[in-house]
Amino acid sequence: MKATAPSPVRIGVINVSDRASAGAYEDTPGKACVALLLEWLSTPFDVDYKVLPDDRKQIEAELTRMADVAGCCLVVTTGGTGPSPRDVTPEATAAVCTKLLPGFGEQMRAASLVFVPTAILSRQTAGIRGKTLIVNLPGRPKAIRENLEAVFPAIPYCLDLIGAPRLETNEAVMKVFRPPG
């Protein structure tokens, strides 16, 4: 799936869902995530897109491929962050990252608590692998927007700090923070 003409900026999107990967229902979470990125980013980018089952080894392999082979500066996952036995996205993320960024999960849960008291059950996290930021989001489109809105203002600066390509946003819809200078 391409967002624009080929570009040096690649963003990975992985929807983690047993049912969507088996074709039992439409992959709306992954598509919702791509739609937000298209709305918010002014930097042209290519999307590396996958739908995977809730299988830790497959998730780890795909996160590693997107970071190390495809060169994605940002990988966003949707789904697999709950407490059920099949929800293993945070474990897969932690296994492939060299640094975890717990503030992302803390901020997303705090933002979600405004809407639903069960936000405390969510285990989304974020971490760094090389020059790639990996962010785990919940699996429902409404929650994807709420959570990504809560943390996206910090994502471009995080990418700057790890030496990834610079992302610019459409300031009318998504303002980001970068320190002066």
The CATH class turns out to be Alpha Beta
Order of helices and strands: EHHEHEHEHEEHH
How does the major sheet shape up? Answer: 6 strands, mixed
Number of domains: 1
Give me the secondary-structure category. Answer: alpha/beta
Order of strands across the biggest sheet? 2-1-3-6-5-4
CATH superfamily descriptor = MoaB/Mog-like domain
Q: How much helix, percentage-wise, in residues? A: 25-40%
Instruction: Report the C-alpha radius of gyration, rounded.
Output: 15 Å
Which residues sit in consecutive blocks of at least 5 with pLDDT less than 50?
none
Question: The CATH topology is what?
Answer: Molybdenum Cofactor Biosythetic Enzyme, Chain A
Topology:
Blueprint: E1 10-16, H1 18-21, H2 28-40, E2 46-52, H3 56-69, E3 74-78, H4 89-96, E4 99-100, H5 102-113, E5 126-129, E6 132-137, H6 141-151, H7 155-161
Parallel strand pairs: 1-2, 1-3, 3-6
Antiparallel strand pairs: 4-5, 5-6
